Amino acid sequence: MLQPSLQTWFDLYFNYLKYERNLAAKSIDNYQRQLTSSFADITLQTWSELTSVHIRQILNTARRQNLSPRSIALRLSAVRSFCRYLQSQKLLDHNPAVGLQPPKQGKPLPKQLNVDEMHQLLDFATDSLLAVRDKAMMELTYSCGLRLSELSSLDLRNVQSDHQLRVIGKGNKERMLPIGNIAWQALQTWLGMRSAFAKEGEQAVFLSKQQRRISQRQIAKRMKLWAQHQHLDQQVNPHKLRHSFATHMLESSADLRGVQELLGHANLSTTQVYTHLNFQHLAQVYDSAHPRAKKRS
Q: Which CA distances in Å does 179 have to 161, 202, 268, 288?
């Protein structure tokens, strides 16, 4: 159990994440869980006593709990960020978590639908209001590479008349995204019928039958149902549509920086994971285009 004076700095840190870094509530909850678990068995009187020995103890405890390498990495990242905050508040002279490494972990490649599977998913009749809404949600997600939170939080003011979408992403960062013609048509069809679900003054783009902004859970559920309805061999969720957008954009353009901007990634390394998905495609391009790659008889 932490001393009350130590717990106070936890509370101040979480307020900092909320009000200064503008992190989402879910992200802050993750930080709270990680830090609470990390320091549950650490005995300190003041934060200035925290050393790399304590951080190693946290990592060893996580290993004994049989946490996955990814979970241990998340825990260390949370502790390192908290120590950075303590350092900025002059409670630590240096960050004791710097230089410590989590166990190596394989990088699972994002799963995506290929182009034919995307056509299969989105090729359905919009013979009901829910079908019109759901097609607009999926077309927009795939056209713009939206995060689930970005899709669910869209308001009418975010839809620009020049076929652009103003999105507020992670860290409250804004970006402008082009909307493809097919997605634009699907969105306009929905907006023309949206009043059936909208109360007066409602600003949310996508609504449920209960006349409320559709929840992230409901969006994911609807996409899963459409994948089953369209007889796809794999499940579909908003993240998979975003991954598909990134993969298909890279296959067509090979413009990593451009895709980074469209996805709203702060770091290029986050986007680079998609380059691994394209190796077979790029190898075929290489074999057909490079003069020294051609087989000779």
A: 10, 23, 23, 33
